[in-house]
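Supplementary Methods, section 5.1.

A reviewer requested that the exact input to the structure prediction be made available. We therefore reproduce it here, unchanged from the version used in the analyses.
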Amino acid sequence: MATEMQKLIGAAEEDDEEEMDVKEEDDEDEENGQKHIAAQMMVGVDGVMPSPSSSSQFQHQQQLQEQVSTPTGGARRSRPLEEKERTKLRERHRRAITARILAGLRRHGNYNLRVRADINDVIAALAREAGWVVLPDGTTFPSRSQGSRPAGGTSAGMTSSSSQMVSQQTPPPSLQGVSSGYRTSVEYNACRMKGVFMPTPLPYDLSSNAHSRSPGMVGDGGEQTENLPLIAGSMEAVNDKQIIGLPPKLPERDFAGTPYVPVYVMLPLGVINMKCELVDPDGLLKQLRVLKSINVDGVMVDCWWGIVEAHAPREYNWNGYRRLFQMVRELKLRLQVVISFHECGGNVGDDVCIPLPHWVAEIGRSNADIYFADREGRRNPECLSLGIDKERVLRGRTAVEVYFDYMRSFRVEFEEFFEDGIITMIEVGLGPCGELRYPSYPVKHGWRYPGIGEFQCYDQYMLKSLRKAAEMRAHSFWARGPDNAGSYNSRPHETGFFCDGGDYDGYYGRFFLNWYSQLLVDHGDRVLSLAKLAFEGTCIAAKLPGIYWWYKTASHASELTAGFYNPCNRDGYTAIAAMLKKHGAALNFACAELHFLEQHEDLREALADPQGLVWQVLNAAWDVCIPVASENALLCHDRLGYNKILDNAKPVNDPDGRHFSSFTYLRLCPLLMERQNFMEFERFVKRMHGK
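The structure derived from this sequence is encoded token-by-token as follows.
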């Protein structure tokens, strides 16, 4: 007997790992069994005589109780079949509950879950919903800097070259509620946008207490494409009474017959290396073929000044770009090209480092004033200062002449691609991240969202321009920057310049902001006039950022420091739209999908209004009849984000039928190529094409 017990003990030890999942359930069964035995014993005590069969069952259960209480635990090997069946039923019931959860998320939450999804798929979907990146091997990391939130401007979000995501900061207690000095976005939109078209809210627009998910999966024509109340294999554990009635799906807008909007995909930042060689051409070719299979119109790529003219003035190397363009032409795709006169690297999302040309950096070491400078004298080598547009400080050339020579070389090198219509648009870089703005919120200098940023006008060339402007007004003492405008991470109410009733709206403040913003418009005017000459016959474009934090305040401080004179009593985007109209240039505005984030707490605390900004800029452009292109500012793989882009691209009930001229998706990456993400992207492309 002792030998048999030892064998049982050994067998039980070997099965310990296999039975870890049901150990707790077994303990519960044993406890329930003991209670059942006690109940039967109580029946006997009450005077009810059990039948002979009941008596034998009682003896069997008593023996079982003794086995369970055996210290060795070896009796677990001899569990009765009924107990094992109960364990199986519990597992089936648990799987059925999981199945209902997964099916509900798939149908009504827009989570792309496979049929045999498990808890890992759910966690991955939730993480991606929150803005994290989850690789196929389970590696998970933020898609932006540590502790950041998806609430920065588009330059603080995803841009075509340098992605600066914004970091969350806890506002002071005074900002937890809006003080009497701050007005609501409704008041500001009313005083600014009277008679301006605002789109009709669609059924799937979110309210403050709505779920942050989009409607259920529908097919191209609005039909339901997935109707799975439970995951396959779990139906046996659920009967009809257990299936709870599902809420009706909200209708989605039908885009069939709407205008055709071309869709481009931005290529990775490092597709061309510093030697101007195409990186991984075979892998890229496969990805381009996949994009072609879903009728993507083309791709967008940065042509980096720091790569092509890296070593000496007027020495251009276009080899890698020529090979890339030939590949695109062979696949019968089209090209949008960004002429990038800024550096890449150092910002969140930048996986490569592409500085300005080496010969420019050499000049900068002896003359740091070719770069922008803040009040403390800190230089920003991300791009050249506007102050040297007409200063011959670049080996005998002005900055504008350097830009023109580069663009003219590109046109000559790729003339055949222009003639064949392969190159459809040239986006001209006009500042940091390729955008027409000042580098007022550089992460490298400590800026964090939602700081107001700082004015960038303290290099000697811009100060010379400011002195000249002050002397023309006969107020030479105005030849200075504001001394009460705070620092990068200040809030408007903390400064004497941007607070309600602050100096920004005084005589000096209006003079300074007019000069500061006009210098930016003049820079765009000069560069685009030469771009129009170099790329005659081809559409040119300029990119604007979406700086929407502090939009609900009177001063719009973060826009002012970036060069947009757009307080609540002035429209700062009409002058830019008029300048673009002058050159026949399109506007690329990278804030198309951000207003679906309005309910995020950090946006409310920053008095942000992405939707108000989006429609102010779009209407400023459409009022002067210039084409509007766009791109996503944040990673977008879900239906809600795509639906918001579609709503802006093709506004519902617009009496003039206005729509985007094109849309560029940022960017081509392994995450986009995942099956479920790619299916959502394919659906988005079809709707942009009016299907």
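Confidence is low (pLDDT under 50) at residues 1-77, 144-196, 203-247. These observations are discussed further in the main text.
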